[in-house]
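A note from the maintainers: we've had questions about how concatenated examples are separated. There is no special marker in the raw files; a new sequence line simply starts the next protein. For clarity in this README we add a label.
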Amino acid sequence: MRFYLGLDFGTSGARAIAIDEREKSCWEGRSAFNTSENWVAVWQETLWGLLSQIPLSIRREMAAIAIDGTSSTVLLCDEKGQAIADPLLYNDPRGEEVREKIADISPPDSVVRSATSSLAKLLWWEKEGLCDRSVYLLHQADWLGFQLHGKLGISDYHNGLKLGYDVEGLCYPDWLAGLPLRRLYPRIVAPGTPIGEVREEICDRWEFPRDCWVCAGTTDSIAAFLASGATQPGDAVTSLGSTLVLKLLSTTRIEEARSGIYSHRLGDLWLTGGASNTGGAVLQHFFSEEALQDLSQQIDGDRESPLQYYPLLQQGERFPINAPDLQPQLEPRPENPIDFLRGLLESMARIEAMGYQRLQDLGGTPLKQAYSAGGGAKNSQWTTIRQRHLCVPMTPSRHLEAAFGTALLAKRGRNNHLSITNNG
């Protein structure tokens, strides 16, 4: 029996899942980040710690490994893969200082126009003079993969999207390829592509077999989608986390930068979506975890709430409406906390339905089935409310952990590679 390992590096920690040939989860592990003072050291220590947790019987039969990381978390490295400066994390906004330059060189609806894009961070580093002594720009997943296979300058087109890589033409576009920073760009391959066998010293230390391959990774949000089980056009996954993130599998590509809508390539299809600022963070602002569970159980999800909220914690929304000046709408607030919570959940369900309608209005494949991910997926009353608004089957995700999706990527990537090699 061979096994396949998925490693998910998120915002507060990392998780690992090993699956077998039947794609059944055989082992799971996790590790919280214990500091944020030196992210490179934290990531490396966490990686080694997770590998140490894996039972020896599984390590000895490991066939492939893949890693996902947070989108647009990047670092500059020298020729040996050592970080030149502290990594810039997914939500680092300092790229705002170079947005005018990006607007001058990039297409109007390009996803790189966000202040937190990989390209924005790279141009900020250029402005600070750090690119002159750098050799590689790597995403978090790229750098972690390098720790295992030892090859530098390779990324996948999911992580490459926010650098400006053309995921339709599978190349760097002319406007990007012509920049002086071109020498730092990674070579882009399809997610799941086997890059190299695990380094000899890693095999010796953890007793991995010599034929264990490390495959190109993906982003954490794409990994979560892969874990859901959604595969057909019209399938969608709503991530009910601190924010409300919608992803729709579509036959057509959609880009609308001002609303934060963009599309990832997923084989021959497009994973298009956007993120609302509403979500679980609003719920946690008003209710403890215990109160949310207790009050939710007392809600009749089949009865519509008359309360019309737009639940935000601060001004501004991008999707499904682009309204930077939109103020939180949380009044009137009933005395009964059950009614207040029901109004919040009902309003978030309306926003979710608006989001999928917006994607369809822009040309996306009509919604046929919705999967749920994130902590809110466990709230059955919220699911009932959402189904009233979406009017499509609500399907439990195959697995709620992104690491499971990354393990699937490792398995399918290696097996596809072997199939092509054997038939070639």
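[label: protein 2]
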Amino acid sequence: MNDIKHLLERSAFGVCSYLGEKMGIASARVRVYFIYISFVALGSPLIFYLFVAFWLNIKNYIRRKRNLIWE
């Protein structure tokens, strides 16, 4: 069961876990809040989620590239 959980977290870009770490709460609670807000706001938080996923992907790419230059 943990393998499936880790696979889903990796494929979902880790946005909820990142936000949970930054806010100091469990990532599962962030996921639940995100689902509730998506129902209330008719899916508009999906745009926010995709923006954060894109930003995290770019940030990791820049860090990886910077580390390769200095090593």
